[in-house]
Amino acid sequence: MDDDLKKASFALAELMQHAMRTSYGMIAREAATSFDIAATVEAVVALLIAKGVIDADELVAVREVAATRIATERAAGWIGPDLAMVTTEEEAQPAQLVDCETRRPTCQAACCVLGKVTLTEREVRQNTLLWDLGAPYSLPRAPTGHCAYLDRDSLACTVWNDRPYVCRSYSCANDAIVWDDFKALIPAERVRRLSRTRRRQEVSDE
Fold first, then answer.
1. Taking each helix axis from N to C terminus, what angle separates 56-77 and 3-50, rounded to the nearest 10 degrees?
2. Rounded CA gap, 118 and 175, in Å?
3. d(CA 38, CA 194)
4. b/e per residue 65-77 (b: at least 16 CB within 10 A)
5. Which of 33, 128, 129, 192 has the greatest number of CB atoms lying within 10 Å of its CB?
6. How far apart are CA 144 and CA 59, in angstroms?
7. Tens digits of per-residue pLDDT, 142-157?
8. How many CA atoms lie within 13 A of 22 on its CB side?
9. What is the pLDDT of residues 163-176, one digit of tens each?
């Protein structure tokens, strides 16, 4: 290696080290701030519950509503890296099992179209599933908007045995975006639009 190349390599290494130190410093400061905020909020909530100002069960219910709203807004506007934050993945089971094969002709695999699927840290490290370079660490989408791992003819998942935690733990049984009436197999309007779009595509392909 000649001297110029050595100098360039050392300069690049120094730049990378500086960038890493800066990034880690920012992360450490953000973590400390988040810890302080979490501790303060927890202390305030504990005091309010102890003094009878708020009800603990009511707080849980309201928090779930707020968490769902914030997560939805974040998913719609977030363009940076995203990981599915879970504590354990091994026993991922949906709240209610669904016979997907029977329902797919009606639901049009809506969960593979309307929802954003992010990988967990373990799934990213396993490197079994590709993720969208433009939206780390979410599953890639086909031009039609469908999950890239969805077979468009059968509407079946092509990586079923290796599907992400988000998919394994999801159930459409109580999802109003998918069903107007789950038991009666009546799809929601957005799903009916998917069905109409699919029929138009099939006609145009003939």
1. 150
2. 18
3. 42
4. eeeeeeeeeeeee
5. 129
6. 41
7. 888 889 999 988 999 9
8. 6
9. 999 999 899 998 99
Helix H, strand E, coil C: the string for 97-159 is CCCHHHHHHHHCCHHHCCCCCECCHHHHHHCCCCCCCCCCCECCECCCCCECCECCCCCCECC
Task: Tell me how far apart the alpha carbons of residues 178 and 15 are, in angstroms, rounded to a whole number.
Answer: 49
Q: What is the dihedral of CA 199, 131, 164, 23, to 10 degrees?
A: -140
Instruction: Give the Å distances, CA to CA, from 184 to 21, 111, 112, 120, 191.
Output: 57, 18, 21, 34, 15
Residues in the chain: 206
SS3 186: strand
Decide the pairing of beta strands 179-181 and 186-187: antiparallel
pLDDT attached to residue 106: 92
Residue 177: both structure tokens together: 């975006």
Q: Quote the CA–CA distance of 9 and 11 in Å, as a whole number.
A: 5
Cβ–Cβ < 8 Å for 172, 98: yes
Taking each helix axis from N to C terminus, what angle separates 189-205 and 100-107, rounded to the nearest 10 degrees?
A: 80
Hey, what amino acid is at 65? Answer: V
